[in-house]
Automatic annotation (TrEMBL):
Gene Ontology MF: a single term: kinase activity
Catalyzed reaction equations: L-aspartate + ATP = 4-phospho-L-aspartate + ADP
Family the UniProt entry places it in: Belongs to the aspartokinase family.
Pathway assigned in UniProt: Amino-acid biosynthesis; L-lysine biosynthesis via DAP pathway; (S)-tetrahydrodipicolinate from L-aspartate: step 1/4; Amino-acid biosynthesis; L-threonine biosynthesis; L-threonine from L-aspartate: step 1/5; Amino-acid biosynthesis; L-methionine biosynthesis via de novo pathway; L-homoserine from L-aspartate: step 1/3
Superkingdom of this protein's organism: Bacteria
Nucleotide-binding keyword on record: yes
Domain (Aspartate/glutamate/uridylate kinase): residue spans on this chain: 2-276
EC number: 2.7.2.4
Keyword Kinase tagged: yes
Protein name: Aspartokinase
Entries under PANTHER family matching the protein: ASPARTATE KINASE, ASPARTOKINASE
Keywords linked to the UniProt accession: Amino-acid biosynthesis, ATP-binding, Kinase, Nucleotide-binding, Transferase
Length: 445
């Protein structure tokens, strides 16, 4: 069994859905297909949820209209039978009109999650029907029946397996299962989700649960690149990368992968393949345990972080002081992304921006706290990076100044924290210093 995940851009147009259809029929292996919502739909659903929260029916109707017509266009283009077109359009309307009923209820997180996860439900239903009608038999599964995830960081794969196994054993002869990414249920049986971009994670959780031979992430680019192609020219796809390296890159902001995606694959040692839906013949990136190539691999950047510099007023940073500081982060369920400790100062980088006021008030009771907002973590990743001949060039770039923090770990990564306004300059400068020669070698080979 293979798990194939198609992201929002791959699900986004009629042509891209045709493209997916041909990918599905080109490989006869039994498949689990995980689909995101059409690109842009989750953003519109978030706006719709806000309108529900504000009891603003006019805005709600505006977003319902936009979302419905995008799906109607797909139905009109894909489905020949008039009866089926009517049936599917009615389903779209039923799902979206259901949102209007929520106006009667007190707004809650459960309501918000129900609204913002409906994009995946709409498009999987349409796409699955289209495939069935064109002679590609498949079974449409509701992810809410088996994606039971309570802890985002530590999902209970066995529970997902148990629920899925019951479904799959009764459908032994089916080659294609289609389901929604992103959406899940919690232990209270309420609808929840795996955070933005979470369909990647759905795919790897399912992959681990069914012991898949491969997890494929189909997107709009030809693999995991050595730097963020949205900000840097002359980036290139990395043919192979280890689980650890990919996991660090995802954790430190490489948008192509949801941060937790690699962990279930590591647990079951399942390779992850990143492929381009629009160029299925290009090789893409293989993420696996086998890769043992050392040296600098790639750079990732994470915005919207902040640095708290916590200075002890009276004592040096002894163990009780350190515990008191981190107990406060724990109280607000915040896991710092980076920490540096010196004898008088603890510097903490966080990416959860809520509760800042309460945290600083609590810390200020026994420390002096300064907050630096708008920070970006830039992380250079690679196995045994210090052995790379270009390693020292990381620190030669003048664009790094003023540098807020350096964090080096396990000979596998260096994180540099800079003001967000420096981000693009630093990414470009590092790319030139560290990777230009590799790029030229690839470009001219
Ligand atoms: N290191 C990287 N390698 C490849 N793509 C990256 C990288 N960093 C950021 N990206 C961006 O991630 C995008 C793909 O992720 P995403 O938009 O979530 O895709 P999807 O719609 O398939 O889920 C690419 O189009 C690219 O702009
Ligand atoms: N639709 C959700 C989940 C997702 O994974 O999307 P994508 O595959 O387009 O990143 C989102 O927009 O966050």
């Amino acid at each position: 069994m293979k798990v194939l995940k198609f992201g929002g851009t791959s699900m986004g147009t009629v042509d891209s859905l045709y493209q997916i259809q041909s990918i599905l029929i080109s490989d006869k292996t039994q498949k689990f297909v995980v689909c995101s919502a059409m690109s842009g739909i989750t953003d519109q659903l978030i706006n719709l949820a806000k309108a529900v929260k504000q009891k603003n029916k006019k805005n709600a109707l505006k977003y319902i209209d936009l979302i419905a017509s995008r799906h109607f266009n797909v139905i009109d283009a894909l489905i020949e039978s008039l009866n089926f077109r009517i049936l599917l359009k009615n389903e779209v309307l039923r799902t979206l009109d259901g949102v209007l009923d929520l106006f009667m209820q007190d707004y809650s997180k459960a309501i918000e999650y129900q609204v913002i996860t409906s994009g995946e439900i709409l498009i999987t239903r349409i796409f699955s029907s289209y495939l069935n009608l064109t002679g590609i038999p498949n079974i449409h599964l509701d992810a809410k029946d088996f994606m039971r995830v309570d802890s985002l960081e530590n999902p209970d794969i066995n529970e997902v397996y148990r629920r899925l196994n019951n479904i799959l054993t009764s459908q032994n002869n089916t080659d294609i299962f289609i389901t929604q990414g992103f959406i899940c249920k919690n232990h209270k049986n309420e609808i929840s989700h795996l955070k933005r971009g979470g369909s990647d994670y759905t795919a790897s959780i399912i992959g681990a649960a069914v012991d898949a031979e491969e997890i494929q992430i189909w997107t709009d680019i030809d693999g995991l690149h050595n730097n963020d192609p949205r900000f840097v020219n002359s980036t290139y796809p990395i043919p192979e990368i280890s689980f650890e390296e990919a996991s660090e890159l995802a954790f430190f902001g490489a948008k192509i992968l949801h941060p937790e995606t690699v962990l279930p694959a590591i647990q079951k040692n399942i390779p992850i393949l990143i492929k381009n839906t629009f160029k299925p013949y290009s090789k893409g990136t293989v993420i696996s345990e086998k890769v043992n190539i050392t040296g600098l691999k790639a750079i990732a950047a994470e915005d919207n972080t902040m640095m708290l510099k916590i200075k002890s007023e009276r004592i040096l940073t002894n163990h009780q002081y350190i515990k008191a500081v981190f107990d406060i982060f724990d109280e607000y369920s915040i896991a710092p992304k980076l920490v540096n400790i010196s004898n008088t100062m603890i510097s903490v980088i966080i990416n959860k921006l809520e509760h800042l006021k309460k945290i600083t008030v609590a810390l200020n009771k026994f420390s002096v706290v300064t907050v630096h907002k708008d920070c970006t973590i830039i992380t250079v990743v690679g196995k045994s990076i210090t052995n790379d001949k270009n390693f020292c060039k990381i620190f030669e770039s003048k664009s790094l100044c003023p540098l807020k923090m350096i964090n080096y770990e396990g000979n596998s990564k260096v994180s540099l924290v800079v003001d967000s306004r420096q981000k693009v300059t630093v990414l470009r400068s590092l790319n030139e210093r560290l990777f230009q020669e590799y790029y030229e070698a690839i470009a001219f080979s």
